[in-house]
Each structure stands twice: as C-alpha cells, then as structure tokens.
Amino acid sequence: MKTKISIAAILLGGSLAAQNHNFNPTVGINGYIETYYGYDVNKPANNNRPGFIYSHNRHNEFNLNIGLVRIAIADSNYRANFALMAGTYSNANLASEPGVLKNIFEANAGIRLSRKHALWLDMGIFSSHIGFESAIGKDCWNLTRSMTADNTPYYESGAKISYTSPNQKWNLAALVLNGWQRMQRVPGNSLPSFGTQVLYKPSDNLTFNSSTFAGTDKPDTVRQMRYFHNFYTIIQATKRFGIIVGFDAGMEQKSKSSTEYNYWANPTLITKFGLTDKASLSFRGEFYSDPNGVINATATTNGFQTFGYSANFDYAVNTNILWRLEARGLNSQDKIFMRDNQAVNDNYFFTTAITVSF
Length: 358
Fold this sequence. Notes:
By secondary structure, this protein is mainly beta. The chain is 6% helix and 54% strand. It has a 16-stranded antiparallel barrel. It has a two-stranded antiparallel ribbon with strand order 17-18. A hairpin with a 2-residue loop joins strand 17 and strand 18. The longest helix is centred in the N-terminal third of the chain and has 6 residues, at 7-12.
C-alpha cells in the first residue's frame, strides 16, 4: 500500500509545506506473515530444532516464523525504513541482542550524495549484504533456509555507501559494521568490521554477486580476525526453470595475532521448476564443512561436516498468498544429532507454511 503525503504539512502545517515544495516523500506501508508447522523425525525433547537452524525451528507445533510491518519513506534525495517483527525466527536469531532490539527487523536512514548519480549513504540496521536468501520466506526458492543462510548474517548494523549504475546492471557497496550479525558491538571489542558487495546483472535472466566480510566478533583481549567471501549466481534459464549456485569460504585466526587459520566452506545448488503459473518445485543440495568449529562447534572428531538436501512444493493461491511444503534431510560425518537420547548422524524433518504479504 503506497500513499503520498507531505510530512512537513502534517508536522508544521500547510504554510511550511508551501515554502518547501521539494519535501514531498512517498510513504509505503507493507507487511508479511509466515505461519508454519514443522515435524522433526528425531523428536527433540525441548521441541527445538538443532541449534544452527534459526528459521522454522520449532518441532511439532503450529507457530509464527516471522510477522512484520514495515514503513518506508523515500524521496529523490533521502530514504528511511523501519520494520518491527515477532516470531520464532526473531527469538532464535536475535537471542544475543538486548531488550526490544530483538524485535527490530530493520531501521535505517539514508541521504543521496550526488545529484547526477545514484550514490547513497545509509546508516542503521539493514538486511545482510551476504547471501541469496533472507528471513522473508516468499522471496526464497525453498521453504526453510539453507545452511549457508543460517550460518551467515541475516542482518547487520553500521554505515553503507552504495552506487547503482545508470543502466541498473551494477550495484556496488562498501560497509563499516558493528560485527558479524550484531546490532550492538561485542563488549570489549573496539574494532569495527568491514564489508563489500559487487552485484552484476547483465540481463534479467542472469545475476552475479560477490560479497565479503573482514573483522572480528570477539573482545580485543582475544581478538581473532575473520575473513569471509560469499559468491553466488542466479540463472533464469527459461521462464519456468532457474538455478542458483552459491559458494562460501571463510577463515579465522586460530588465536590472537596468529598466522595460522581455521577454514570453512559451503557450496550450495538450488534448482526451481515451474509446473504451472501457480505451482513450482524446488530442489536443494548443499554441503557445509567446518572441521574446526569456527561457526558450528560440535566437540566431535571431524567437526561440523554436513550434507543437506530438500524438495519443495509451492502453490501461489494468488499474488499475496503462498502455500508451501518441504521435506528436508541432513546427514553429518559425525554423530551430531540426537534421537531417543542417542547421538546419530542424520536428521529428517517436514515443514509446511503459509505466507501472506500485503
């Protein structure tokens, strides 16, 4: 829903608005609700899915993954976004954030730095510049998030300079951040983190993206520098067939000032087939290798080395309502999952969701 209003007229009356003809922003209000039911074959006693899963993470119950309302204000020279959310996603993914910050999906404001070019400076809380998935399920090809999405930032806070080329094919960004998925910096950490993004879209059917992160998420006393690169390409081969290929690689110092590093990597492949204008199938294969437990500590011999695969069916009731079904499996080299109080190598689960956007 979009309407045009004069903020100046509302706050100070029509006389001031008449003196400031250029201050006439567009205000948009939209929302999103995603409800779901998930069943985990391992039947976790506390009804929580494994700790590295942050979306649709409750077992054997009907619940709200995420519900949010957003207001966006935009003019040719400035913009602002503010969105509040609730649901099991925010409870799990923002557990380290204090107080009401757990309910902030985004809160940012920006100004245009050039009259001739789309060069912007934005500050605040944003969706992450890393990855091809987000917390908004309807925008993702699969119902549940991939291991790469669940183990990289969903959100970030800081300042961002971005540029979009006149032909809309290039989007470039440089960021100064408070940390690896942090609204508030880790206590005792005085070093900002940094990020970059290069997105190239030569046509409507092809997208290339390269995103980086450099920084630390630990106090200065035990600082370990982390360097990370995310690459993906999206190929819409035909109207009804698309492919996403992604590859993440990262390294982190083994200890402060060390010249030795722990490494992790994560390839992902997703295909989507349109059956009709309303129905589609998606398949995902992925592997996450984190033998030293930088992102997922397991205290096992081979660390977190896990294959994932899923099949997804979507049916668009209309342009605003989507019904989804997914079967997913995870298989690890070590016994990192629990079933009947015994450690096992695999985990299977089934999820259905309904999304409504407005």
